[in-house]
Amino acid sequence: MNGVENEKKGTQAKNHLTPEEVDRILLENGELEQFDELMMYYDSAMVEVRTKLEVLNKEMTLKQRRNPFEYIKSRLKKSTSIYEKLVARDIPFTVENIEKNLNDIAGVRVICAFIDDIYGIRDALARQDDVEILQEKDYIASPKANGYRSLHIILRVPIYMSQEKKLMNVEVQFRTIAMDFWASVEHKMKYKKVIKNAESISEELKYSADMINQLDRRMLQIRDRIAESDEEILEEKQTQTPRTPIMPLRHPYSSD
Ligand code: GTP
Ligand code: MG
């Protein structure tokens, strides 16, 4: 690991607080209730986005006879991570600053089998008139230097409280199963304080990321070839010489 990353870890360690300590800061600033309320809004926005995705899944499964995504994971950022992120950016830890500066408090991860489904779901969400796409980072078209691939979007969705409507930001990350597998292995390495042979592991990860990309594209081709074969078989059946007309059913014991 290089010096810069070690330095970053050092700063993070210094800023590391327990959830109770973060609560105490909020209480001292008279913002504990407001913070809990904000978290409830984000949680509700996450539920909204999950529901939107599940509805799309139902429709696409019925129409295309396959599910566009395998599963969804979602998480609300912990108060300690929120605190650390603001402090690391030299932004005072206040409820207003959380909402203004962080887009990943509510996070949803959509794991798809095939790359084209990622863009299909993204487009379907973008067409909904209560969804606004605030930001998009396409690390599939332009992978990170380490090989990381995913499509990240920041959505703004409305949530309806008893007295008001709030617009909340939700981060959605789309990945294939293979990309998710890679990211989870890479994540393990990234957060180790001390690691031997870091450079050669990084190289191996980069190489694996490229192989995974090839694999994802080949799987897409295989899926399309299977679908083409299904269509051809269906066409052949339909263009075959008409079958001999079915004789009207007669009662076996009828005399005529
Ligand atoms: P942060 O959210 O502060 O990291 O910055 P950002 O919002 O500019 O980052 P970005 O949109 O690039 O990435 C946000 C999230 O994507 C991270 O919190 C991770 O969940 C994931 N991510 C991004 N890059 C990597 C990576 O190199 N490896 C892995 N495993 N995950 C990544
Ligand atoms: Mg983030």
- What level of helicity do the residues show? 55-70%
Category from helices, strands and their pairing: alpha+beta
- Which series of helices and strands comes N to C? HHHEHHEHEEEHH
Average pLDDT, to the nearest integer? 89
Spatial order of the strands forming the largest sheet: 1-2-5-4-3
Question: What global shape is seen?
Answer: flat
Give a count of the beta strands, DSSP E runs of length 2 or more: 5
Strand fraction: 15-25%
Distinct compounds present: guanosine-5'-triphosphate, magnesium ion
Q: Number of helix segments?
A: 8
Radius of gyration: 26 Å
CATH architecture of the domain at 10-180: 2-Layer Sandwich
* CATH class category label of the domain at 10-180: Alpha Beta
CATH superfamily of the domain at 10-180: Beta Polymerase, domain 2
Q: If you consult CATH, what is the topology of the domain at 10-180?
A: Beta Polymerase, domain 2
Q: Describe it for me?
A:
This protein has 256 residues and is α+β, with helices and mostly antiparallel strands. The protein has a domain at 10-180: Beta Polymerase, domain 2 (2-Layer Sandwich), CATH 3.30.460. Helix content is 55%, strand content 16%. The chain contains 8 helices and 5 strands. It has a 5-stranded mixed beta sheet with strand order 1-2-5-4-3. A hairpin with a 4-residue loop joins strand 4 and strand 5 (165-176). The protein starts with a helix and ends in a 17-residue tail after the last helix. Residues 1-13 have low confidence and may be disordered. The site of guanosine-5'-triphosphate has 10 residues, from helix 7.
